[in-house]
Amino acid sequence: MLEIRELHKSYPIGGSSLHVLKGINLSVKDGEMVAIMGSSGSGKSTLLNIIGMLDEADSGEYILDDLPIKDLTEKKAAVYRNKFLGFIFQSFNLINYKTALENVALPLYYQGVNRKERQQQAMFHLGKVGLTDWAKHLPKELSGGQNQRVAIARALAANPKLLLADEPTGALDTKTSYEIMEFIQQLNDEGKTILMVTHEEDIANMCKRIVRLRDGVIMEDKKVTQVRAEHYV
Amino acid sequence: MIKFLLEKDTWQEVFDSLSKNKLRSILTMVGVWWGILLLISLLGSSRGIENNFNRMFENYATNSLFLSGGNTSMPFKGYQEGRKIKLNLDDAKKIKENVEGVEYVLPSHQLQITLSRKSLSASFIGKGEFPFNDVLAKKDLLWGRYINQTDIDEHKKVIVISEDVYKQLFEKDENPIGKIVYGENLGFTVIGVYKVVNFGGPQIDVDIPFTTSQQIFGRGNTIDWMTITGYENFDINQIDADVKLLLKNIHSIHPDDNRGLFGFNLGDRFDQITGFLTGMQFLTWFVGIATLIAGVFAIGGILLISVKERTKEIGVRRALGATPFLIKRQIIIESIAISLIAGFLGIISGGLILMLVNKTLGIGEDAFMRNPSVSIAIVFFALLIVITLGTLIGLIPAFKATSVKPIDALREE
Ligand SMILES: Nc1ncnc2c1ncn2[C@@H]1O[C@H](COP(=O)(O)OP(=O)(O)OP(=O)(O)O)[C@@H](O)[C@H]1O
Ligand SMILES: [Mg+2]
What we know:
The complex is a heterodimer.
Chain A: E1 2-13, E2 16-28, E3 33-38, H1 44-51, E4 59-64, E5 67-68, H2 74-84, E6 85-88, H3 100-110, H4 115-128, H5 144-157, E7 162-166, H6 174-189, E8 193-197, H7 201-204, E9 209-214, E10 217-223
Parallel strand pairs in A: 3-8, 3-9, 6-7, 7-8
Antiparallel strand pairs in A: 1-2, 1-4, 4-5, 9-10
Helix pairs in contact in A: 3-4, 3-5, 4-5, 5-6
Chain B: H1 2-6, H2 8-20, H3 22-57, E1 64-69, E2 87-88, H4 89-98, E3 102-117, E4 120-129, H5 133-136, E5 140-144, H6 149-153, E6 158-162, H7 163-169, E7 180-183, E8 186-195, E9 206-209, H8 210-216, E10 222-223, E11 225-230, H9 236-250, E12 261-265, H10 266-305, H11 307-319, H12 324-361, H13 376-403, H14 406-411
Parallel strand pairs in B: 4-9, 6-8
Antiparallel strand pairs in B: 1-11, 1-12, 2-10, 3-4, 3-7, 3-11, 5-8, 6-9, 7-8
The structure holds adenosine-5'-triphosphate and magnesium ion.
């Protein structure tokens, strides 16, 4: 699914520069569910954003689904993001003046799907996260957990191959976190490849593989036995 | 592109974005609306004032001049200075015959006359006139008629009075036509009432037939004023100079003596007023455009406040697959839609204000302005400015949010 070799990234700070990623090598296959861990500031989000084409690496190779991702025009990047990737953010990033349904339908709008079709598909995905009854509500009328479920439905709407989640449970309490993880595990069961950044060991253990970052390199990369979230809910 | 403009989705997005960010939309619209409203009502009002002047002018032959004898200020050909110059009917004839470009020479007497009626009486300045005066300086008659040839031929004791005289001697709404007023121990029959328009010189409140004043006041051949008009293609200033030269010659006035003859040239006055009107128009445009620009800058300010919020939203949209082109197109359409709506509201309310102004200030004889209005071209021009500026300013967040990496747009809090 994706292949990363000798990836480097630094940020300029004042006169000097901060070397955040110092040669990352990572390979993820279809259907994997990977947790990226590491202390704060270790570069987890940076890595995820590069994978998501929201940011660019300084050097190194990145191949997504046999496509080398290099020097993309913003237009191409937008099309790839739209086709291949679904994003789930810690702070949900829903558009506050759009209803749950409209938010979920937005990626489909950019795919050029017609209105009626969009509404139907969006409704279907909202149903999958159990929010059919909340379709007409604005984000501010929903709880954090509900908002994150809307965000998941939105990430799914465009039927992406790869789901990227940056601390999807970071803003939620334990119980709600497990509910969200249950959805994400279901998606993985259905064949979606998932990459998620997390701080919490219990969340990481609900994935199938844990990658640990430290000082800009991968310090540990191991398969784990997945803990099913439904046991905790 | 056309297809895109016809799609319901496009407008749904615009409508959502505008209606769900109400404060931003309303503030933006208020800025544009106010600018357009001000421009239209100012331009319309100044047009109304101009129309009013034009209406006053249209009754006057603009290439005319007025002349009377003065007192000499230089000794000449054996005459002492301080001599009083009296013009006469022969002068009028000679001017007509000798000065090139002169179309008419109209002599008149100036009179001081005390009019009384019942227990009321007051003193006025009047003129002994020919009917033709009504052609050169058309009287705005509120009642009756002006002096005619029969009045002249038969030396009739008829009188045309100004609105002021009427107000002083008559009851409100009383019909003065055919009533008698007394002056110089004689009874004059009122034949008309006019409205005074004065461009210089003493205000004339009473007109009687020239021949009548000649007789009553024993004027013989002498006259006080001459109204001289030139043919259309002759320069009134040249005629002015030629006439004065001729009269100075006839009356033995020193060529450099500017006091011997007194006169003013209506052409000059019109130029002054036209200049004033042009100045007013210019000022209006200046104020209007400045207001529009201020309005658009206000919009800019409001949009900038929402840029951060917008930038983040745009980051989210980009993460979901919106290309920079789609984003910019959306924002431009939004800007145009909002400017257009506000612009139309501005035009409509500006028009309403002009109607109101017309109702309150533009009605009646004393109206300060007439038919205040703006041309379609001006309206379109104003709309164009607003749309252009509105679009450019709408592009600020669009360019800001699409020129950075999506992650930086997403990071805005
Ligand atoms: N745009 C930026 N400009 C400058 N420095 C940055 C930028 N983004 C991140 N950094 C720095 O790079 C380092 C890695 O940031 P990153 O967000 O990847 O960390 P993280 O592992 O996700 O941390 P956390 O667990 O706190 O989210 C941090 O030291 C951060 O300050
Ligand atoms: Mg992070």
